[in-house]
Amino acid sequence: MQSYQGFEQGPIRPPSEASSLLLRVTRNCPWNRCTFCSVYKKQKFSLRPVADVIADIDAVHRFTTELHGSFDPRIELADHQLSPSEWSVFAAARNWLAEGMRSIFLQDADSLVIRPENLIAILSHIKMRFPQVERITSYARSESVARISDSQLAEIAASGLNRIHIGMETASDTILQMINKGASKETHITAGLKVKTAGIELSEYVLTGIGGREFSRDHAIETADALNHINPDFVRFRTLHLMDSVNLFAGSELYRYQWASDVDQAEEILLLLKGLYGITSRVRSDHSYNLLQEIDGDFPGDKVQLMATLQHFIDLPPQERTIFQVGKRTGHFVRMSDMDKPGRRKQVEEICSQSGITSENVDEQLHEMIQQRMKSGMPY
Ligand code: SF4
Fold it and tell me: What is the CA radius of gyration of the chain?
């Protein structure tokens, strides 16, 4: 068996975990076959030994204890007598201390795939070292959660895991099969209900545009229906941005993916929200890559207002809509109300005029711009 390789952190976390300590429990993704996802491609999945994760927790505990009371964010790594292997854990401990040490996110793609008793041992050690921690969360695949018994999930919850982030993407079985998600609508519902029954908070991620033009309606209707069954604590929208070279519907011999325009996607979200009934979820569009980040409200009270926001975008005169699309995608606007800021608006109008962007070609132009940015690894 390989000996401890030192403190590790994986590549990603949900935006809502920006203040959390990232603790790596597994490396990469045990499934790694979703056609739209490139995060862990070519990376081999492995479980980290429980003893290694515990060694990471102890190392963070040692540094946070040493720094506590004498914390000064101006102190740089170089000011401490650290070996190179200690730098990453020191930086993680220092940042977490600065954030108040209230939450921990277990990485990578699916911590629920490990044996429940091992996850419980890790959670118990976290609680012993950091009793003040209020939230311990993780990504999980529906497939993994659905395999865990209710009693084991209740034990996991009792040991401290109190939020799970699941990438539902869609609940359309047609699309799930074509994108090789490795889960069905039924699995998504079973897993979601299990999480809720265990008393763990549930965040479901929905990928807008995943059905393209052809399956947009199916995506909206089926996903709303699954969410109605589950009633997750959070529904979070993410927008699919994909390189044209990716064969999204690789699981189908019949269909080829046709990307959907911003208006098509707004109509898709509108249809989805319209189909949500009897739930009390917080619905959020909390990623900067999303066009309409103002989608943020609590169901059922805010349903009408959220739908009105989408309808407002759809009903904008084409030239106004173009200004907003370009302003949002170029980082000049965050919300539609930013169009009322004369300085920013003028800059966006200049971009449109210099680049020849009109309401007739805006979707193709933005699609091309995002393709170029993805190729060069720039944010978009
Ligand atoms: S399960 Fe998640 S991390 Fe794994 S390939 Fe699919 S989308 Fe990517």
Answer: 22
Tokens 């064969």 sit at which residue? Answer: 247
According to DSSP, the residues that pair with 169 across neighbouring strands are 206
Q: Region of 295 please: left (phi>0), alpha (psi -120 to 50) or beta.
A: beta
Q: Which residues, 6+ apart, have CB-to-CB distance to 369 below 8 Å?
A: 329, 380
User: Quick check: helix, strand or coil at residue 77?
Assistant: helix
281 closest CA partner among 205, 208, 172, 183: 205
Task: Supply 355's token pair.
Answer: 């680049």
Short-list 194, 191, 215, 197, CA closest to 205: 191
Alpha carbon distance 112, 119 (integer Å): 8
Cβ neighbours of 124 (radius 10 Å): 14
Residue 195 pLDDT: 98
How many whole angstroms from its chain centre is CA 200? 18
Q: Distance (Å, rounded) from C-alpha 53 to C-alpha 26?
A: 9
Structure tokens at 243: 């390189």
Is residue 81 pLDDT above 90, yes or no?
no
Mean pLDDT of the chain: 94
Q: How far is the CA of 37 from the centre of ligand 1 (A)?
A: 6
The span from the CA of 253 to the CA of 256, in Å, is 8
141 lines ligand 1 (CB under 6 A): yes
pTM of the model: 0.93
Asked whether 37 lines ligand 1 (CB < 6 A), one says yes
pLDDT band (50, 70, 90) for residue 76: low
